[in-house]
Design a protein that fits this description.
The complex is a heterotrimer of chains A (322), B (178) and C (428).
Chain A lengths: L1 E5 L10 H16 L5 E5 L7 H9 L5 E4 L1 H5 L17 H9 L1 H14 L1 E16 L14 E4 L3 H9 L3 E4 L2 H10 L4 E5 H6 L8 E3 L5 E9 H5 L3 H27 L4 H6 L3 E3 L3 H43 L5
Parallel strand pairs in A: 1-2, 1-3, 5-6, 5-7, 8-10
Antiparallel strand pairs in A: 3-9, 4-7, 4-8, 4-9
Chain B lengths: L2 H37 L7 H22 L8 H5 L2 H32 L13 H4 L1 H21 L14 H7 L3
Chain C lengths: L1 H13 L4 H15 L8 H8 L8 H14 L2 H13 L5 H14 L6 H17 L4 H12 L9 H10 L3 H26 L14 H10 L1 H15 L5 H19 L8 H31 L2 H12 L3 H18 L2 H18 L4 H14 L8 H10 L3 H7 L1 H16 L2 H9 L4
Classes of the chains: A alpha/beta (322), B mainly alpha (178), C mainly alpha (428).
The structure holds sodium ion (2 copies).
Keywords (chain B): Cell inner membrane, Cell membrane, Membrane, Transmembrane, Transmembrane helix, Transport
InterPro entries (chain B): DctQ, TRAP_DctQ
Subunit structure (chain B): The complex comprises the extracytoplasmic solute receptor protein and the two transmembrane proteins.
Chain lengths: 322, 178, 428
């Protein structure tokens, strides 16, 4: 039995957490099954863009897809409610939330609605806000700056609520758009910035950590239920091991290659907002985004967003927070 | 003009008029997007998406018109060496294979477009079925032009299914793959 | 399965199937042969997403702009300018032919339309001055390949979009190699002018004449300034620059030269629609087959095979050059780029070759294919325009071909020729 696992990062075992986790998945499955099961890793979107890979996963041509929220949203729009800015304060809380009852409830609902099974929320990282105009400490500093966002309504609403001019620019034109000043700012996780070399054309970074971009591992219910009991044990173990590896790799890459040091080495000025300043961002953005969630996703979306906020609170109240 | 070529001409006219309007609109939309963003500093959020959808429609529907004019790039060297009757037979077999592919576009692509009626496009907020409808529609139009071409081969009106309609200078340019 | 795929594709190509349909039909047949009918879903999906790239839009725009500029007769003005600059040399009109091609290259993105426009005008003029017609045709065909190497360039738009390489960077990288082709061709004409007994007509133009010719050509010459200056100065992206080029050409035609009318619009738009139709469908179909190749991990296998020969970047580039030269002899250049680019580009990146350098090597190479016998688009057009037979032209173009191959060798072995300018401007 061959399992095809697909992701969009480069096939680089040193600098891609998604690829590292896929390699661990492959290793566990192939070594535990004595060669009865094998894994083909398809990196760098070679089996298609986010939307296509989801479609292929649904049809069991790809067995495991490492998707983004944007990719999932095409098939399960409700997930957009999880993309609530400033909801998740740090990675440990984020992982606790997604590994706990909230994550399970989300997975169950998604499977019931779409036939897509959420296996794990693997490695994730926070977005930073960068621009080439001026240091941004509060939303007031963003006034009038043209920030590139994806054409996602909640991202546009967030940027506009912060006073910026949201401007959609395709990813493949982003570097030259930033360089030449077609747009002045953007937001992305640091490893993504590194892929596009955006640090070369941006001066100021603000560690707002406003959105959490994670690797969502999905399969189809059909494939999963077609596994024998023995196969499923190995498969589940491999997913768990890959999750540990991916999350660990992401954190260690943050400490080595793709952290604040990376931005500073590129000559950027990095600012970490205080709790007060973060509160100003949150107070401007959250109501605006909640409104788009209500408009686009209705009651179900609003309920999910509120569940997320509750789950975060519960997780932070628990032990071992940081 | 035979009935076959008249039919092809009418079909072309019906498709070209909207395509020309779409082409002009595509230029206007991108220019407007540039103007609003650069001059008015008030970026429009929908121009990129609208222009991109128009481009895809123009390209894929335009491809059907290229069949009518025999403008699709191909290697003719070897078929030219074949005896005339054999050449016709080869063209018909190839056309039949292409129709299978076009059938996939119409059948499966049509299904995909229908499924997408409930998804909306990110910027314009229109149903994704609108841009995706170009898949089955281009399949149908390409199929019709191809069938007309094969029929013209049968009546002896044309020597080949894929050769240029009017071998004049413009078409030499086209064939040259500009 | 890989062999089935290759066999089906080449058989279909040999049978004269249009490239796009050869690619698509091969993909469908392979899925049927593998008994993987569920995969057929990918066919319409990739057919659509293969061209769902905003940056590709620059292509129809540059076609449109080029068409309008041909229509408003800026050719005459550019020829006049070149004439006062180099027309008085021995072999003057041959030099003019090359210099006008360089001017034109800064205006338009394609080679073939320019070949036709310039050939119609210059080949008879050269013949009247005593050039042999095959020589005149060869100069025309050879210099026309400068067009897509100097920006703007349709082929660079396609390359950049497909390979995710900065289009603005490619534009900047093409300037020096494009000028080198022009200089190389002019050097050949100058060095062999006596041996070939090329005519020498007239004397150097007066400063006043040069000034007047410049003034007449000023608006067309502003176009590259607007396009490149606009892109590099941050006013617009390459796609927007292309749209602005259209507006500029329309403005000049309607309000300055006043030789364009609304009734010309359907014709130029029709050109754009049909050119998009025939190129984009190759992209769409190649995306389908490309997916199937990725599924079977064929590009990795080819990569390992090539890297098995040598891991020296120069050796790899040499292999690529030979491969493209051979394939370019029999296949359309855009199709070659679309099919082989996505396979070769990642290997070049693995070897640490600069993406802009590799892009320019590929682009110079596939442009060379426009003038390599037996199948070269610019050869065909020149034959049609000049009524010189393909055999005669193929022989006559050989020395020019060697010059361009020499430039290609230089561009291949000296990355700085392509990478310096983009680096100075801050691209990649
Ligand atoms: Na050019
Ligand atoms: Na020329």
């Amino acid at each position: 039995k061959t399992i095809k696992i697909a992701h969009e990062e480069p096939a680089d075992a040193e600098r891609s957490a998604a690829h590292i986790s896929a390699l661990v998945f492959k290793d566990v499955i192939e070594s535990r099954s004595n060669g009865e099961m094998s894994v083909d890793i398809h990196a760098a979107s070679d089996l298609g863009n986010q939307r296509e890979r989801m479609e292929l996963t649904k049809n069991d041509i790809i067995q495991v897809n490492i998707a983004s929220i944007g990719g999932l949203a095409g098939f399960y729009p409700t997930i957009n409610a999880v993309d609530l800015p400033f909801a998740l304060p740090n990675v440990t809380t984020a992982y606790k939330v997604f590994d706990g009852p909230f994550g399970q409830k989300l997975a169950d609902d998604m499977e019931a609605e779409t036939g897509l099974k959420l296996l794990a929320v693997n490695a994730g990282g926070f977005y930073v806000l960068t621009n080439s105009e001026r240091p941004v400490k509060t939303p007031a500093d963003m006034e009038g700056i043209k920030f590139r966002t994806m054409s996602v309504p909640s991202h546009i609403a967030m940027m506009e609520s912060l006073g910026a001019a949201a401007t959609p620019v395709p990813w493949d034109e982003l570097y030259s758009a930033l360089q030449t000043g077609v747009v002045e700012g953007q937001h992305n996780p640091i490893p993504i910035m590194a892929i596009g070399n955006l640090q070369e054309v941006q001066k100021y970074a603000t560690l707002t950590n406003h959105l959490f971009g994670a690797d969502w591992w999905v399969t189809s219910s059909a494939f999963y239920s077609g596994l024998s009991d023995a196969e499923r044990v190995i498969f589940d173990d491999a997913v768990e091991a890959a999750k540990l590896a991916g999350r660990g790799a992401k954190l260690s890459l943050r400490a080595t290659d793709f952290g604040v040091g990376f931005l500073k080495d590129a000559g950027m000025e990095v600012y970490a907002p205080t709790q007060d300043e973060l509160a100003q961002f949150r107070e401007a953005a959250v109501p605006a985004v909640m409104k788009t969630i209500e408009e686009d996703l209705g009651e179900k979306g609003t309920a999910l967003a509120n569940d997320l906020l509750d789950a975060v609170e519960a997780a932070q109240a628990g032990p071992a927070q940081n | 003009m035979s009935r076959l070529s008249k039919t092809a001409a009418v079909l072309e006219r019906l498709t070209m008029v909207p395509l020309l309007i779409a082409g002009a609109a595509m230029v206007a939309i991108v220019v407007a997007g540039t103007f609003w963003r650069y001059v008015l500093a008030d970026p429009l959020l929908w121009t990129e998406e609208a222009a991109r959808y128009l481009m895809i429609w123009i390209a894929l529907i335009g491809a059907s018109v290229c069949i009518r004019h025999g403008e699709h790039v191909r290697v003719e060297m070897l078929v030219r060496l074949l005896p005339r009757a054999l050449r016709k037979a080869v063209d018909v077999v190839v056309a039949a294979l292409i129709l299978v592919f076009l059938g996939v576009l119409v059948w499966i692509g049509g299904g995909m477009a229908l499924e997408a009626t409930r998804q909306t496009s990110p910027a314009l907020g229109i149903p994704m079925a609108v841009p995706l409808a170009v898949i089955p529609l281009s399949g149908v139009l390409m199929g019709l032009h191809l069938i007309l071409r094969v029929a013209m081969l049968a009546t002896g009106e044309r020597a080949g299914v894929f050769d240029w309609a009017e071998p004049d200078q413009d078409h030499a340019d086209w064939e040259a793959g500009r | 399965m890989t062999w089935f795929m290759l066999g089906a594709f080449f058989l279909l190509m040999l049978l004269g199937t249009p490239v796009a349909f050869a690619l698509a039909v091969t993909a469908v047949l392979t899925m049927v042969q593998m008994d993987m009918l569920s995969m057929l879903r990918i066919v319409p999906m990739k057919f659509y997403s293969g061209i769902d790239l905003f940056s590709l839009m620059a292509m129809p725009f540059f076609i449109l702009a080029g068409d309008i500029m041909n229509r408003i007769r800026i050719t005459d003005r550019l020829v006049d300018l070149a004439n006062v600059l180099v027309g008085w040399l021995r072999g003057g009109l041959a030099h003019v032919n090359i210099v006008v091609s360089v001017f034109f290259a800064g205006l338009t993105g394609a080679a073939v339309a320019d070949t036709a426009a310039l050939g119609k005008m210059l080949i008879p003029a050269m013949e009247r001055q005593g050039y042999r017609r095959p020589f005149a045709a060869a100069v025309t065909a050879a210099s026309s390949i400068i067009g897509p190497i100097i920006p703007p360039s349709i082929i660079m738009v396609i390359y950049g979009s497909l390979m995710n390489v900065s289009i603005a960077g490619l534009f900047a990288a093409g300037v020096v190699p494009g000028l080198l082709v022009g200089v190389g061709l002019m050097a050949y004409v100058a060095l062999s002018a006596r041996r070939l007994d090329l005519p020498k007509v007239g004397r150097p133009a007066s400063a006043a004449d040069v000034g007047r010719a410049f003034k007449r050509a000023l608006l067309p010459l502003m176009m590259p300034v607007i396009i490149l200056g606009g892109i590099l100065g941050g006013v617009f992206t390459p796609t927007e620059a292309a749209a602005v080029a259209v507006v500029f050409a329309l403005f000049v035609g309607f309000f300055v030269y006043r030789n364009l009318s609304l009734s010309d619009m359907p014709a130029v738009l029709t050109d754009m629609v049909r050119a998009s139709g025939s190129v984009f469908i190759i992209l769409s179909a190649a995306a389908i087959l490309g997916w199937l190749l990725a599924m079977e991990q064929v590009p990795q296998a080819i990569g390992e095979g090539l890297l098995g020969i040598s891991e020296n970047p120069l050796v790899f580039l040499l292999i690529v050059n030979i491969l493209l030269l051979v394939i370019g002899m029999v296949m359309d250049m855009t199709a070659v780029l679309i099919i082989l680019g996505p396979i070769l580009h990642p290997i070049a990146m693995d070897l640490g070759i600069d993406p802009l350098h590799f892009g320019i090597v590929m682009i110079v190479n596939i442009n060379l294919a426009l003038m390599t016998p037996p199948l070269g688009a610019c050869l065909f057009v020149t034959c049609t325009v000049s009524k010189v037979s393909l055999e005669v032209l193929s022989r006559e173009i050989l020395p020019f071909l060697l010059v361009v191959i020499g430039v290609l060798g230089l561009v291949t072995s000296v990355p700085a020729l392509s990478t310096t300018l983009p680096r100075l401007l801050g691209f990649g």
